[in-house]
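Board work, copied verbatim: Putative [LysW]-aminoadipate/[LysW]-glutamate kinase
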Amino acid sequence: MTETDDSADDEYEFESPHETEGFDSGRGVETKGSSGSDGPETEGFCVDDVVAHGGTVEAFLADGGDNLVADGGLVDETGDDVDDAPVVVKIGGARAVNPEGAVQDVAHLVANGRQVVVVHGGSTAVDETLEELGEEPTYVETPSGVTGRFTDERAMEVFTMVMPGKLNTDLVATLRAAGVDALGLSGVDGGLLTGKRKSAVRVVEDGKKKIKRGDHSGKIESVNADLLGTLLDAGHVPVVTVPMLADDGVPVNADADRAAAAVAGALGAQLVVLTDVSGVYEDPDDPETLVSSATTPADLEALQGAAEGFMTKKVMAAVEALEGGAAEVVVADANLRDPITNALGGGGTHVSPGVLGDASGVGDADDGIGGDEAGEVEQ
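↓ predict structure ↓
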């Protein structure tokens, strides 16, 4: 490792290991919380929980539940409530995110004619698998004080095995059991998510900034939108996970929030980022300070100043999505009956393209080292 000077940019692609999400074989999503429990909180992608209406959209409709939107109103059966833009849903989030409502809501949206792409993460399951194999995940601290997992060669092997191999398969099966024609994809499949491999990450060790070499992460620069469009037009719901495909043809890790942003931008979609709070707060300790919308550059500056912890990454992803061409980004509460419908109907924090103004590169928080990107890999 070599030391760097203090003039380097302090913005990085890290997420706290206490704010990650995963799936397990029994319940699905697990998160490392701070509740004081003996183990990680679970938040089931559980087929038994999701399929409470006979396992099909038809049964769900017959039961009457799918005729209700989040505000208690009836769905417009003429289809007038269906927007032209697809919806990209990032399922996951910090601590107590329960994806059960999101799975049911995806079925609701698809049954009403909406095109949906789901993106998920799952670093907790990667960590647990590493630990089961007798290896400890490696975490590093950035100069900005954020802690994230460093993906070395062994972690990348486990990551590839767990994310597209098990977690994506489990989520696809759960969605299909709910009547959704889900189809799983990693960023490698069909060159869906491609870009430059990162060569290093800036870290702090013993109070000094250093460069830690490790080229098992990347920055998404291109999305195969034609592939997604073909699948959507055929009635499928693509369920996307990293890894991405690096420019040298090797799978590497990438951040799942930013993967969702890249997909939404490429499709001109609305991006709904589901988390465990109702949106971005001016004061995270005061639920009355929810920021309902950001429409101007000044609003964006205030939003970036208000975001703390894992929410910083959500705001970063929102900007990147809009820069890429997304119609809108909403950061919203996953733990509602109809979390996606609620978000599209006005819930959460809405970020519109107007926040970009005439600026470019607002959301680029990567560190360039020798022409390559410094980065991190957390989901």
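The chain has one domain: 2-374.
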